[in-house]
Amino acid sequence: MAIVHFARFFTLAGYYFTIDFSQYRKVLLEQIKRMKRKVLWGSLLLFLPIGVLLLNSVYPLPVEKLKPPSSTMILDRKGEILRVFLSENDTWQIDEPLLDQISPKLQSAVLVYEDRWFYQHPGINPLSIIQALITNIRSGRILRGGSTITMQLARMIEPKERTVMNKLIEMFRAVQIEIRFSKDEILTYYLNIAPYGGNIVGSTAASLIYFNKSQSHLSLGEASLLAAIPNSPTHLRPDINPTMAKEARTKVLRRMLTRRIISDQAFYEAMGEPVSSKRHRMPFNAPHVSRLLKQYYPNRDQIYSTIDSYMQNRSEQILRQYLAPLQKQDISNGSVVIMDAKTREVLTMVGSYDFFDRKNHGQVNGAVASRSPGSALKPFIYGIALNRGLVTPESLLNDVPVDYSGYRPVNYDRQNRGYVTVREALTESLNVPAINLCAKLGDNGIYSFLKQAGLTTLDKSKMHYGLSLILGSAEVRLIELTNLYASLADCGRIADYKLAKPQNKNDMPKRKRGECFESSQRSWDNQKHRTGKQIFSQEASFILSEILSDVRRPDLASSFEATANLPKVAWKTGTSYGHRDAWSIGYTPDLVIGVWVGNFDGHGTAGLVGSEVAAPILFAIFNAVIERNNARWFDRPNQVQTRRVCALSGMPKSGFCPKTKMDFYITGVSSPDICSTHKPVQIDNQTGMRLCSYCRLGRTYHEEIFEEWNPEIATWLNRSGYMIAKIPQHTPDCNGIISGSVPIIKSPSSGTVHQIRSGIPLEYQKILLEASVSNRIKQIFWFLNGELVFRGNPSQKFFLEPIAGEHMLTCVDGEGKSASQTLTILD
Ligand SMILES: [Zn+2]
Ligand SMILES: [Zn+2]
Predict the structure, then answer these.
(1) CB-based contacts of 596: which residues, under 8 Å, 6+ apart?
(2) Centroid of ligand 2 to alpha carbon of 729 (angstroms)
(3) What is the pLDDT of residues 401-414, one digit of tens each?
(4) Are 107 and 119 a contacting pair, CB within 8 Å?
(5) What is the per-residue pLDDT across 124-148, written as a single tens digit (0 to 9) for each?
């Protein structure tokens, strides 16, 4: 490389020696005739390069000074500047790695004004040095330096007093720079580190501070002024000396006109531009995400974020608009995250209500803060259960009081419903059925699911969170929760979210400000970097999304017109324990939006309810950012079919189900078991007793359909006063056991009266409880006056400590069939 540069240096040098000295050719020829001069001249040509090479190795170019510490610049997905940070040296310096990112107007203004032979000379321009010498000698003082842009660059990296010796050093450095770098690189360095007054360094920072625009938008007048300022930054800066700045601009423009770089018209137009003395603030948009990116990528000067400025700005506005009236209700903050469901690019991150609000900790980034999600994780247990075929939307779940080793979950309204469908349990966000389902999922349940999904806040053991994990005992970050929902929007695929574009040279989009590289970038992401893993089947995701799109929207009633065209959205809310956090997350196949509302100091307040304060913000943002024309819903996967199920039990209908309804199911996955709630029972016409296949013979009987419930629901229905027709008892003198018949209580035998004997401890007077059940039965339950006293397998022996009184003893088998008898204990 160096050799190539050297060769160019020599060619160019030769060019100058032949062309510029052509007028002295005669004199030269005479001189060359002389032997001594010939030797001298020859040796000069021979030793100059060797000398330069030698000096180059002794005094290497301080290359690092060409790249001083620069400001970090955060850009949005289209290349517009979001925020600029001061450099380590407290300067505003934005490094432009490529010349084509610098305004062409500024380039030509600089070249014509400073060094119009820049692209021809080898770093030193002998003509301008001679011209400068003549000028200086005539005037008796130093007026001109004869410096090329390369020499000026050398002086910028090593500022020195203006002496003849220093000038020679500068020339040597200029040659070194020319050998090492291309002309474009040199001009780029020059414009990157040129002083623009105060702590403003380089043309990009100057352009932003003096004109509040990026280089691509510079006018001719502005470019001309930027070309002039580095000559005397303190005197020419427009914010301090607008008059002198204007004069300098005129000089540059005149020279451009003289050299016919610009037309007369362009010249007069530029001359007419006012010189503003305003100093603008550096861009300060999306402050939270900008700061986060700077922390994530400390070594990048320019960070291409995935932020979509339009969505970011609209979300900020909407969040402010909705949070403003809540300030009076002791609700001070909120955050918003918008994610592209396919690429997982974060399109928006609003960290707080007001970044500058110190009182309410506005600088805290709520999007990455760990908070309790309340019910916001619930959909995922249903997802797991759907995925395993355990449930379909119309399956029933128990909603009766339960006790898991002392943990007794309750619903938000403290009511139990006996049984509810999966759809109802999820849309009404009931706690008890969710906990029951969670318990049913066993070891490989929600905890391992969330671990697999990569929730970074889940740092304690499974035991620590227990079953209440699903009700918000673990904390989550809004950004991760939004990403988790993105997996539902993306066919069950979990992947990492992205905040920045990659900065690999081949992958990096060429920044052209104002131009959109979005489309190409998205396809790039889709094809090459579609990593991640399937945590649900797409069938389970589809069904879950269908259920979540069912929920009554808070916006539909109040402002029908505004939402009339709003496409189908799947969504869920969450409210943490003690009303400390309100959440709402929604998605379409394209976008996922997460909203958190709360106080950063964590205090709760009655108004913090997900559906009341977070959901309206979610829908307002959906309304603002969604492209209605392109809005779509998920395609139903082939494996998802509909089937007719029992309207009561939600299981595939049997011939005995009186009413049916349609339900989604996954072929080959969802349970095919038909309704077990509706049972035909043969009843003796004479006695009204139940008959089995043995005792049925020779008797006249009829068949009736009964509802048979599992013990928990049956007990709850009884105690709650629901009139459920009781299945008649089996003919007592029959020894046959009906397949699926009721249990038969063997001990205590019917009608026995127990007498508690005094003087003997009660524990030695226990009563044996024993029942015979169908051999299919795995579990039996004993209830005393409706209270569960034992549960276990049918072969187990249970002993009841006697309590004086009239009791009702009930044995319920695992299929919900039961037998009862009275038990009298006398004191
Ligand atoms: Zn049925
Ligand atoms: Zn029988």
Answers:
(1) 334, 335, 366, 367, 371, 478, 581, 582, 583, 614
(2) 10
(3) 887 877 889 998 99
(4) no
(5) 888 888 888 888 788 776 656 678 9
Question: How many whole angstroms from 733 Cα to the centroid of ligand 2?
Answer: 8
Query: Which residue's entry shows tokens 């038909």?
Result: 674
Ligand 1 center to 662 CA (angstroms):
13
pLDDT at 543 over 90: yes
Ligand nearest to C-alpha 736: 2
Report the chain's C-alpha Rg in angstroms.
42
Task: Report pLDDT digits (tens) over 61-103.
Answer: 888 889 888 999 999 998 889 999 999 999 999 988 889 889 9
Closest ligand relative to 708 C-alpha: 1
| CATH classification for the domain delimited by 680-826, as one of 2.60.40.10, 3.60.15.10, 3.30.70.100, 2.40.30.10 | 2.60.40.10
Lowest mean pLDDT, pick from 328-332, 493-497, 518-522, 703-707 = 518-522
d(CA 71, CA 205): 9
**Is 60 exceeded by the pLDDT of residue 510?**
no
Residues by chain with Cβ below 5 Å of ion ligand 2:
692, 694-695, 734, 736
Return all residues near 688 (Cβ < 8 A) that are at least 6 apart. Answer: 728
Residue 389's Cβ-count burial label (10 Å; 0-12, 13-18, 19+) is middle
Give the pLDDT mean for 422-433.
93
Q: Would you give the DSSP letter of residue 388?
A: T
As a CATH number, domain 65-272 is: 1.10.3810.10
Per the DSSP assignment, residues forming a β-bridge with 787 are: 784
Whether the ω angle into residue 748 lies within 30 degrees of 0, i.e. cis, is yes
CATH topology classification for 346-488+534-630: Beta-lactamase (3.40.710)
Does residue 515 register a pLDDT over 50? no
Distance 707 CA to ligand 1 centre (A): 8
Domain positions in the chain are 2-55, 65-272, 346-488+534-630, 640-668, 680-826
Q: In angstroms, what is the span from residue 738 Cα to ligand 2's centroid?
A: 7
Check for a shared fold between 346-488+534-630 and 680-826.
no
741-791 pLDDT, tens digit each: 678 787 887 777 888 888 888 888 888 888 877 665 778 888 888 788 888
Task: Kindly give the distance from the C-alpha atom of residue 438 to the centroid of ligand 2, in angstroms, as a whole number.
Answer: 40
ω into residue 298 within 30 of 0, thus cis? no
Q: What's the CA-to-centroid distance between 795 and ligand 2, angstroms?
A: 22
Lowest mean pLDDT among 25-29, 643-647, 661-665, 689-693: 25-29
Q: How far is the CA of 647 from the centre of ligand 1 (A)?
A: 7
Distance CA 343, CA 527 (A): 10
Ligand 1 centroid – CA 706 distance (Å): 10
User: Considering every ligand atom, which ligand is closest to the CA of 675?
Assistant: 1
